[in-house]
Amino acid sequence: MSSAERVFNVGVFFVVFRECLEAVVVVSVLLSFLRQAIGSKDWALYKRLRLQVWIGVVAGFIICLGIGGGFIGAYYRYNNDIFGSAEDLWEGVFCMIATIMISMMGIPMLRMNKMQAKWRVKIARSLVEKPKSRRGYFNIGFLARRYVMFLLPFITVLREGLEAVVFVAGAGITTTGSRATAYPLPVFVGLVAGIFVGLLLYYGASRSSLQIFLIISTCILYLISAGLFSRGAWYFESYIFNKKSGGDASESGDGNGSYNIRKAVYHVNCCNPELDNGWDIFNALLGWQNTGYLSSMLCYNIYWLVLMIVLGLMMFEEKKGHLPFCEKLRLRELNPMYWIKNKKKNEITEEQKAELFRKLNNLEFDGEGNIKHDDENSSSNDKVVQSYENTAAKV
Amino acid sequence: MNFSYLFCILVSLSWVNAATHTFNWTTGWTLANPDGVFERPVISCNGEFPWPDIRVQKGDRVLVYLTNGFNDTQTSMHFHGLFQNGNNQMDGVPLLTQCPIGPGQTFLYNFTVESNSGAYWYHSHTEAQYEDGMRGAFIIDDGENNENYPYEYDEEVVLSLSEWYHDNVATLLPQFLSIFNPTGAEPIPQNLIINDTRNLSWEVRPDTTYLLRIINLGGFVSQYFWIEDHEFDVVEVDGITVERNTTNMIYITSAQRYTVLLHTRNDTSRNYAIMQKFDDTMLDVIPDDLELNATSSLTYNTSAPLAEQSYVDSIDDFLDDFYLVPLSRDALLPEPDIRITLDVAMDNLVTGINYAFFNNITYVAPLVPALATVLSAGENATNPEIYGSNTHSFVLDEDDVVEIVLNNLDTGKHPFHLHGHVFQTIIRDRTYDDAIGEVPVPFNESDHAEYPQYPMLRDVLYVNPQSNFVIRFRADNPGVWFFHCHIEWHLAQGLAIVLVEDPLGIQANSSQELTASSQAVCNAINMPITGNAVGNSTDFFNLAGEPVQPNTIPTGFTAKGIVAMVFSCLAGVLGLITITIYGLMEQTHVEEDFIEDMMIDPATVLEEDDSSNSNTAEKSGAEPTVREY
Fold first, then answer.
1. What is the pLDDT of residues A290-344, one digit of tens each?
2. Is residue A100 part of a domain?
3. Which regions span the lipid bilayer (chain B) (predicted)?
4. Which residues of B touch A332 (CB under 8 A)?
5. Which of A35, B77, B102, B262 is the most exposed, having the fewest neighbouring CB atoms within 10 Å of its CB?
């Protein structure tokens, strides 16, 4: 491992950056909402609620930093015991997992306004919904609502943070010979970059320059991801070869006999990312190996092919509202999780959404910062809430 | 002429004293359990195992009718160390001095032991066969009851050492020469054996001088050998008697012989350990259950307990054979007429298998025994080309002083053996340890240690890791002689060259002509007995169809590698372009996108498009449309 890779793990940086961005979106949406809804009416209350938000952010951040540090520290302490001789196999598995995770989270970055809209609705729902019964006022749900301005950012940051911890551990493990020292710097830089972009969002930077920034970082993310996929296949090959050769090949450096020549498409007796300085950066960014196995090369190409097809379908769907050749089918419906989690339950209609925002604008807080549920104020609101309760009951 | 007169006298003298020893040996398979741990198939001699030890007298005639009793494998027999002067075809190297003996065939090894005496041995020279047990000691007495031996002793005992595998060569060799053994890691033996057993008890008499002939019949590891609380005098190595040298430990490689005088103690109260120890630096891995020491007993007293394992402080204090002085005190040979410099290296070829190389050539046997080529080539016999490019043959002129400079670029020790000769050991450099960053050191002609005045003579000499040795001999024994590593695995990897010594001298001597038995064996397997390396006797320089080593592994990118790289780069660039297009795509329909995100039926949205838009804008209450769940 080179000195660069020892202190800066590229994969970790991008994962942290992305998760941080999402958390920042949530917080900025919350803050702008507070400013709009309360800032104009009651400045003191606004300031208190804003403090709650920040306390939530900081608390969530500290907790997941603790969990993440502990998790990664424990992993590296017991590293050798966990994997032993099957290290290549595990690296392959982690590469594949990291590929899937990065692939799933990369594209939504390019639809930042979608992300913002999604979170606006989610926040609105959590603020407007009220306890279903009187008894509810004494349960946790009610207490939660009382400190909603603390809990929302707290849970969001915690959730995104833990997600990042899982990603970071995965991305870190996939980097051969990585160690705990490779984490702090990319995590820090990722946080700074995420917050910076979040600020741009909050203060409404020009959309086009922001978008270009996001495109570039997404491109890099997918380069890493394609490389990880290829490396996953490479590690599997390497594992099989080492197993058959009794773990013998690894000792022979990067020369003849260090790889399975029958499956190699190319091999160069240099530029070994595990031994030669500098090449590990290509390894981390592009999946470079000094031996190209047929499977690893195919995987690299297939990854890009699949990505292009999926993006093509998404673009088609964005334009036409459905997939080509099947007018009823949309991309998300191809995802089995859509049916397993029965996401349809969580759907709201356009009208409900409109209603939500209207209610949000009328939302009032009492002197202690608690949300006053104003279902008595308007008869039309009743209907919406009832319909929600009906929905909830059916659920 | 004086010479022929002398010759006649010699012949008649030997006729008077010489006996003829006839052996009818048929190979086969039987089960045996030499190490007492595991019974396995071994190669038998007339159904018996182990193979017999042979004792003859200098000048005796030996007839070995070797019949191949295997079903599907060839065989051969080499009498290790014998000069076979004028009898090159009795040297027993398949495809050099004879055709391999096919199943059911019999080859007659017929020779007189003229110029050798001391400890020798015999073994199959076919594909590591002797690791399956096809070997034995071959002791030559100098005079009746060894009466001409220059040292006094009371009794003579042979101790044959070897490593022992539980798997057959037929299993080990394909595993060894495999793409899945890319480093060429030699098979790890399971045990060390002595006289084809373990925990031997050698009952000795007190205060007696034994002539102990220690022979390493193994095909792989070197062994340290010592006897607890006893010193012994080395008096002979590889059949060469030397000035007495006292030591308490020897280091004996595969195929080496040390004859020592051991004077037993007066005290019979206890027994002493005879120790063998692996040179474990030759093992690529040391399994946890491998016993590196083997203990036998020097038994003075059968009622006392057998000896326990004996430990030594250091195994580095063994006798350095380089400084032994032959009794003959042959002076250092003069500056060589021909110098052959050989660089030893191990590497993989395009098959993925690890091979061994002398100067980047790994030995590949010809299609015609080289001796047959010599005998049929006439004047062309002096041109090394006709013996094939991959046999790595050198032609030596009559009575040349030959110097072999061997530079070991490998990190292992290798015992090298020259057929048909003993050689003077001029230089053997120290180990250069790559573990401490030392690199291979080749022999430097202008800067080397002083040559010994009376160099040691022997037929197997080891080279140290990343080191070098220099040997000299006179080409006074016409014949085709093999020079190779005596680690059988390395020979299988091709660590050998061929020395075609005085080919015209071979042709001139009628005793070198192929015997009837030799020709019959060739005919039986349809192997030509004339022509160059590929059997072409019309054009000796046409080697079309010659067996050659696999190609070297290309360094860097080949065509398919470049294609793969171009495609990968292209795929990457196209993928990035797609991402960019997607990212730059106008997001004019954010609201619709969002509605879709929320999974609202587009039909509903279209129906109520106008009203909902206006409602949202005006934030006025509208009748909620609850979807059916």
1. 888 889 899 999 999 999 998 888 888 877 777 777 766 666 666 666 666 555 5
2. yes
3. 562-585
4. 599
5. A35
C-beta atoms of A223 and B576 within 8 A:
yes
Pick the more confident residue, B539 or A358.
Answer: B539
Count how many pairs of residues, chain A against chain B, have C-beta atoms within 8 Å.
Answer: 199
Number of domains forming the structure of chain A = 1
Q: Does the ipTM surpass 0.85?
A: no
Task: Name residue B191's beta-bridge partners.
Answer: B164
Is A167 strand, coil or helix? helix
Q: Taking the model in full, what pTM does it have?
A: 0.77
User: Is the pLDDT higher at A385 or at B323?
Assistant: B323
Q: What is the tens place of the pLDDT at every residue in B192-210?
A: 999 999 988 999 999 999 9
In a domain, A392, yes or no: no
Residue B484's nearest CA partner among B174, B94, B185, B168 is B94
Beta carbons of B561 and A348 less than 8 Å apart: no
Is A365 a domain residue?
A: no
SS3 of B490-501: the string is HHHCCCEEEEEE
- B593, A111: Cβ pair inside 8 Å? yes
> Domains of chain B: which residue ranges?
20-323, 338-525
Q: What is the pLDDT of residue B57?
A: 92
Give residue A14's pLDDT band: very low, low, confident or very high (50, 70, 90): confident
Common-topology check for domains B20-323 and B338-525: yes
Host H or E run for residue A365: strand A364-365
- A 346-375 residues with CB < 8 A to B: 347-355, 357-358, 361
Answer yes or no: is A363 within a domain: no
Kindly provide the b/e burial profile for residues B20-45, where b requires at least 16 CB atoms within 10 angstroms of the residue's own CB. Answer: eeeeebbbbbeebebbeeeebebbbb
Selecting from 2.60.40.420, 3.40.50.300, 2.60.40.1120, 1.20.1250.20, what CATH number does the domain B338-525 have? 2.60.40.420
What is residue A10's predicted lDDT score, i.e. its pLDDT?
67
Whole-angstrom distance, CA of residue B227 vs CA of residue B159: 13
Residues A219 and B236: their CA atoms lie apart, in Å, by 77
Write the CA distances from A277 to A2, A273, B8, B39, B273, integer angstroms. Answer: 5, 7, 76, 52, 54
Pairing of strands B135-141, B54-57: parallel
pLDDT at residue B12 above 50? no
Give the closest-approach CA distance of A45 to chain B in angstroms: 25
- Is B586 an interface residue toward A (CB < 8 Å)? no
Split at pLDDT 50, 70, 90, the class of B4 is: very low
Nearest alpha carbon to residue A40 among A361, A358, A356:
A361
Task: Provide the CATH topology of domain B20-323.
Answer: Immunoglobulin-like (2.60.40)
For chain A, say whether B566 makes contact (Cβ under 8 Å): no
Interface of A with B in 145-164 (CB under 8 A): none
- Angstrom distance (rounded) from CA B212 to CA B155: 8
Q: Which of A219, A343, A347 sits opposite B600 (nearest CB)?
A: A347
